[in-house]
Design goal:
Blueprint lengths: L9 H13 L1 H7 L30 E2 L4 E2 L1 E3 L5 E3 L6 E6 H6 L5 H5 L5 E5 L6 E5 L2 E3 L5 E2 L2 E2 L12 E8 L3 H4 L10 E7 L7 E9 L3 E12 L5 E13 L6 E14 L3 E15 L5 E2 L22 E18 L2 E18 L3 E2 L5 E4 L2 E22 L2 E18 L1 E4 L3 E4 L12 E5 L7 E18 L4 E17 L5 E21 L2 E13 L6 E2 L2 E2 L9 E14 L3 E20 L2 E24 L2 E16 L16 E10 L6 E10 L2 E2 L7 E2 L2 E11 L6 E9 L7 E3 L4 E4 L4 E9 L1
Parallel strand pairs: 9-12
Antiparallel strand pairs: 1-2, 2-5, 3-4, 5-11, 6-7, 7-8, 9-10, 11-12, 13-14, 13-46, 14-15, 15-16, 16-17, 17-19, 18-45, 19-20, 20-23, 21-22, 22-26, 23-24, 23-25, 24-28, 25-27, 28-29, 29-30, 30-31, 31-34, 32-33, 34-35, 35-36, 36-37, 37-38, 38-39, 39-42, 40-41, 42-43, 43-46, 44-45
Amino acid sequence: MHTLFKKTPLAGGVAVALLAFSGAASAAESTPASQQGDTVVVNATTPDSQFNAGSNDLVPAYLDGQIANGGRLGVLGEQKAEDVPFSIIGYTAKLIQDQQARTLTDVLDNDASVESSYGYGNFSENYVIRGFSLAADDISFGGLYGLMPRQIAPTFFAERVELLKGSSAFLNGVPPGGTGVGGNVNIEPKRADDTPLNRVSLDYTSSSQVGGSLDVGRRFGEDNRFGARVNLIHREGETAIDGEKRRLTGGSLGLDYRGDRLRGSLDVGAMRQTVHGGRPVVYLGSATSVPEVPKATGNYGQQWAYTDLESEFGMLKGEYDLAEHWTAYGAFGMSHNHEYGKYGSPTLVGDDGDATMSRMTVPYFSDTVAGNTGLRGSFDTGFVNHSVNLGYSQTYTKTRSAYTLTSASVATNIYSPVATSEPLTNLYSGGDMGDPHVRSRIRNEGYNLSDTLSVLDGRVQLIGGLRRQSIAVRNYNYNGVESNTFDETKVTPAFGLVVKPWQHISLYANHIEALQAGDTAGTTYNGKTVTNGGQTAGVAISKQNEVGVKADFGRVAASLALFEIKKPESMYTASGDSYTFGNYGEVRTRGMEVSLYGEPVYGVRLNGSLSLLDPTLTQTQDGTYDGKKAVGVPRYHWVVSGEYDIPGVTGLTATGKVIRTGSQYADEANNLELAAWTRLDLGVRYDMNLPVNNIVWRAGVENVTNERYWSSANGGYLTQGDPREVKVSMTVDF
């Protein structure tokens, strides 16, 4: 049996995290608040003057509080974007509330670097960042992988959603799902603010979803050092898609202690989500052209199809100041996910919308234990300041699953869906449906060392780092018998440079990598033996180079990034009378990103971004698709959102957002091309600003024109965009 902490440095990290709570009371008593050096942070978002770079303090929000110019950079902690050679931005709880963002996808719709889609055969919310996939499994929570719900991440417990654009093996290690070559997403939990909070919200979403939530926060004790934040939510009903019903019930508790030398937090949460009769993806099958898009509210799924998702998670974190400039830190987290679903997606059998469907039933369990520990500090050598970090991290995930699959006996049409009874005769099956066997064990662990050298009062910074990363995978067949193993270690570097030639301008460059286990070889190819059949093709090392400029003029901030990412692809190469399988192929993505946000004129707030990509298949199997464009990656994508405070009516604000996505291919031969699409969202917000029991009303319409469009071809299948959707909410602060 695998023991995660046996003889590993992670045990020390757990000790630091536990110390933060076991010693909290005594620490509060032993050090008077008036003592010099005492730092008490009591706001959920740290004031700019108190922000401690590299710690767990959240980067201060920008102006109106919807966007934060920075976020968590793995081993480097929370950092302002202007001080680091990486592209990162944060979206706050205020933006989540003002936009009535229900899930992580609603939040990430604000950034042009991100595309969203459904998972393969289920309702998982997956993403494409800089042209490469990020699975919902690989979203981090407080910097730890594997703790979030596996398919759909709600936002009710999120204080911050942080988007890191670009590869990040050195910074974040390797997520259990092995995705995230082009970027990562981290969710930070809510914290109690200095002002007591008693908030009740009621919401409605078309066509008949009704929900309510409770958000309570308190700080107490000497200097408000202890904090507690409770969030509860329930929402259910039919969506704007015909016959699709969704339900969410969840709760979270966040406790924290902020002292002069000791800081700690504990976060726990549980939630259950269901999707009944959901609209699935569409497989292209034998179609020779991309089908016309069905009506916006149409549902070509079956009412017997559903997914039931249960998640529980917990995270304990701690920091202790050993000396004036030296801090030990640690974090430990666990999660359990249980899913049971009956899935059915149409596979096209022609160009007129005719399709067949089968029923696949899957019970799925995952258990994850994750943690990190380390030491960070700073010192001077002559005129050079060094900020160093030595750390260790590990993520261990075990999955169990089984399945039954019927024949493609359901005949339907995506334009005129045929409702059928559930097919009951299984054609294929694997594992024990009542008690599934272990299917995989994944252990990713790494040691990291970094040094940020700073001169000229921080106007020139050079970051260098190394991570020794191990990826160990054990796969099992559905009977629980080990089928193949993989265990490999690589050293991955990172280099970055920041130069601030003027007060408001930062120039930067970086080289960083992403690591993931390669695919598994078949035993034969083209009728010939594969010399390493059944083995994994080793660790695939993706490499990114990026240069850019960032500007912050106080009321407006902007950035420009140019980058190239080369990702290896597994394929076969001839060797005499046999073949060898390895990471010989390559996908190369070159791109440009532009962003602009702020309040250029009082009462007018803007947030805009543009992504231009050239995703090229440079080395493919037998050269068949060399020079073709990667599947599911649009060549351009831009997002512009804004708010306008209506003159003469205090508290009344008009809101809007426009999303434009360019065409993309659904096949490697580039014969099937999705059309470009545009979505318009409009809304209004009225803050009554009452001295007691303040009330805020919000109303919004997403996809105002009820546009019909295929939103994504990620994975080689079609995801249809949501129809017009009305959202209304009332929030009362008592």
